[in-house]
């Protein structure tokens, strides 16, 4: 249908740009994702890309084991994507099984705005706590490894 024609047109434009310029491209996958995914998901993709780029530049500047840090970052990102996908499938099963739109909600709809703020705060605290734990553990393991090399 129309989507296939748009996809073919985007590929033709991308290949033309590839041959005529070195810096400009029109990635068909990005265009397809932008057309297919809702805005709430599409917005998180560039945010994740910026965070990934920042993390990679930080890992490249790291004095010790920059490549290992990059690999761990990729492993973390992959785990988040897979975990979210598994949760989505399980949650869809729960919704289908119960017939309710929000089967796991603890409070009513009147608490929606507050629940989002609490959820964001808990998420940020959890990420910070896990980051700090990992950082301290890494420093301890590196110190132990450095001590055993002497």
From TrEMBL:
It comes from the Bacteria. The chain crosses the membrane at residues 29-51, 72-94, 114-131. It is found in: Membrane. Its main location: membrane. It is a multi-pass membrane protein. Pfam families: OPT. This is Oligopeptide transporter, OPT family.
